Amino acid sequence: MTPTLAAAFAEEFNDELQRQVSGNEAAVTADAQRLEQIQAELSNLEQNLLAGRVSDTLARLIEEREAEKRRLKTRQEGNASPAPTIKPIGADELKSLFEAKVANLHNALEDSDVRLAAISVVQALITRIAIYRNRGVQAALSR
Fold first, then answer.
1. Phi, psi of 136 (to 5 degrees)
2. CA–CA distance, 132 with 84 (Å, rounded to integer)
3. pTM of the predicted model, to two decimals?
């Protein structure tokens, strides 16, 4: 891996991490806003109920809002832990990590059982291999 490619990959990797954390924060904020809106709607629906405006529709709306409120509160409880701290990865650190992973993979493949299992996994991923005279070999992988 060239230093330029490692730096470009590290930058893109760090940008993606930041996007994911930002996306999660936006979802948490949206959930909190929706929960406030549901609280207001429930208050309004309950006022109608107290005023004697009882109907199947009113009961259904209250039930739906209560269910959504429970879902949002459950999701909020799951998001109660603080957002992870993101430590950007530098190109040199990324290169070292990559080299260590490749070395570990190389060592693992020295074991014949692991090597056979790896071959089986790779074979399961390949759906076709096409050989072209001017373009070389191309393999299609399944997902």
1. 85, -155
2. 47
3. 0.45
